[in-house]
Q: What sequence folds into this?
């Protein structure tokens, strides 16, 4: 997921989901004068710079951040301006305070990121510390999505284990909705958030064909860079086979579209 350009090509689904989430949160997203909004896991920066500003008044300062220095550099070169800057951050690290300041931001947003962070509690603790008093965070993360199950299965595939082992990239969530809501609510309240709202959403998205879905999987694949060139074709076959048999992926016979069914979690929490 270090390649900003490839990622961008296949990431349009994110736009749709972000609008849906933010439109439902408009009143809570309202900003006062000169507020600072931190986007965690901004990727190539296009979402931060093109869409996010439409929810905030002029004068708001946006900081996009990402664990990948490659993403941050790409975003800084292509999208920084007087309102938006980008800076590296691993939100799951327990040592971010040499480069970041406690109680320094008014709002945190994070779209499709936290399922990549193994230590979710540490990430939430960091976000709590980054927020000013009365600050709020808005997090969108998938709780069940074919990309996660497909990539999870690739990680367990014996044929490629020597290249994928060691890379435990996913935070696999419980699929029991009620438990998920209870778990998040309890964790956030324990950390100190005063107001917490966790919602689950069922969603679907259509790809024009299987190839488009495979490309989307490839754009997220954390193992691909370590697969030797001479094994790439076989590796693609394995991915396609796994995706084809995934329960969340169906071919719609009439339209020929490939449909994925997935579940998102929307989290709002105020300090
Ligand atoms: C699926 S992309 C989402 C990008 C962007 N938010 C969007 O919706 O277009 C996930 C991003 O999270 C970043 N990421 C993964 N783990 C992270 C961490 N621990 N801290 C910050 N960013 C992280 C990845 O580098 C990647 O750019």
A:
């Amino acid at each position: 997921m270090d390649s900003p350009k490839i990622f961008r090509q296949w990431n349009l689904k994110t736009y749709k989901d972000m609008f849906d989430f933010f439109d439902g949160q408009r009143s809570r997203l309202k900003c006062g004068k000169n507020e600072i909004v931190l986007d965690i896991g901004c990727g190539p920066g296009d979402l931060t710079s093109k869409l996010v500003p439409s929810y905030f008044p002029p004068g708001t300062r946006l900081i996009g951040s990402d664990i990948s220095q490659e993403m941050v550099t790409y975003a800084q070169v292509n999208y920084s301006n007087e309102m938006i800057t980008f800076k590296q951050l691993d939100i799951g690290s327990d040592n971010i305070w040499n480069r970041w300041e406690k109680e320094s931001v008014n709002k945190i947003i994070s779209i499709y990121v936290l399922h990549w962070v193994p230590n979710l509690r540490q990430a939430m603790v960091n976000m709590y510390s980054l927020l000013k008093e009365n600050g709020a965070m808005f997090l969108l993360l998938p709780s069940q999505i074919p990309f996660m199950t497909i990539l999870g299965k690739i990680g367990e595939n014996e044929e490629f284990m020597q290249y994928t082992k060691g890379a435990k990239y996913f935070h696999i969530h419980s699929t029991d909705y009620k438990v998920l809501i209870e778990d998040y609510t309890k964790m956030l309240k324990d950390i100190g958030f005063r107001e917490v709202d966790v919602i689950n959403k069922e969603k679907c998205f259509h790809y024009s064909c299987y190839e488009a879905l495979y490309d989307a999987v490839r754009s997220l694949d954390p193992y691909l860079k370590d697969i030797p060139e001479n094994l790439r074709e076989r590796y693609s076959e394995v991915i396609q086979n796994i995706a084809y048999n995934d329960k969340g992926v169906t071919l719609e016979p009439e339209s020929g579209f490939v449909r994925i069914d997935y579940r998102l979690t929307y989290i709002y929490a105020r300090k």
The domain at 4-270 is CATH 3.40.50.150 (Rossmann fold). The pocket of S-adenosylmethionine is lined by residues 1, 11, 14, 40-43, 47, 66-68, 71, 89-92, 111-113, 116-117 (CB under 6 Å). The first strand starts at residue 36 and ends at 40.
